[in-house]
Design goal:
The structure is a single chain. The protein is α+β, with helices and mostly antiparallel strands and 157 residues long. It is 62% helix and 14% strand. The chain folds into 2 domains: 96 residues, GMP Synthetase, Chain A, domain 3 (2-Layer Sandwich); 55 residues, no CATH class. Helix 1 packs across helix 3. The protein is elongated and about 60 Å long. The protein starts with a helix and ends with a helix.
């Protein structure tokens, strides 16, 4: 019975904290933070909040420091919105699993391209994205056509 109770409390704490981070915190240090999971202890006196921060190591540490600074405010919100005997003391833990999975997916995609396992259409789409930054020849021909039209209209006048 205690596991169902702690799981329910974990979901409620996660919802309150993620909503507060998204809408109520005004700390500029806290950016690109996602609450992944919350582990509430069986006695409901402590909770580990696992967060993912997108960005480099410096921005991750800065966001984690901002969350630790806002811990009292977040605990007060949890106490106000969840009716429990004890308010859990929050501990923020940086979880890099999302970042590692993105890096792993990129490595696997690169390997598939090297082996030729990805269809040519996917590779063409990548090449089209790269060529979109460069000017097309069709744009220059349109500009030439306009100058020819202007020269013809000047001759008529």
């Amino acid at each position: 019975m205690s596991t169902r109770r702690t799981a329910k409390a974990s979901r409620a704490v996660r919802e309150v904290i993620s909503t507060a981070i998204l809408f109520e915190l005004n700390d500029p240090r806290i950016k690109n933070v996602t609450v992944l999971d919350v582990d509430v202890a069986t006695d409901m006196r402590s909770a580990k909040v696992y967060v993912s921060v997108m960005g480099d190591e410096k921005s991750q540490q800065l966001s984690l420091h901002g969350l630790n600074s806002a811990r009292g405010f977040l605990q007060k919100l949890v106490a106000d919105r969840i009716d429990t005997r004890y308010t859990p003391v929050l501990t923020f833990v940086l979880d890099n699993s999302v970042k590692k999975s993105i890096e792993t997916a990129k490595i696997l995609r690169d390997l598939a391209i090297e082996r030729g396992e990805i269809p040519a259409e996917d590779e063409v789409a990548t090449d089209d994205e790269l060529s979109a930054d460069q000017p097309d020849d069709s744009d220059s021909s349109t500009a030439d056509d306009e100058t020819e039209d202007d020269s013809e209209s000047r001759e008529d006048a």
